[in-house]
Amino acid sequence: MITFFEVWAFLEPKAEYANLFGHCKQLWESWSSDKQKEVLLKIEKKKSEHKFVDYNPLLALRNNATERPKPQQTMSFGEYYAKYGTTEEREGWKMANPTGQKVIYVRETRA
Q: Domain limits of the chain?
């Protein structure tokens, strides 16, 4: 189990954020151990890839705890058929029927 003190040290917050210690600890302890591991792994991965992790430790925890929907491209059934000449899934496109009315094709884009 990861203690909050280890997480706080890992985040290395500046002195100006010391007043957030209690709020961060409360948030951290409200999560299951699986959620804690998931958040810490996300932060570790970002740091190892030299990506931005918020300087504010509370925002760093919150921002890495929420799943953001992946951006998607969409194409109508007609557009898809005109482009590929088939209804088979190609190049990452998947058939979907989100409204129950019309079939569309969707593809996740890189964020």
A: 4-63, 72-108
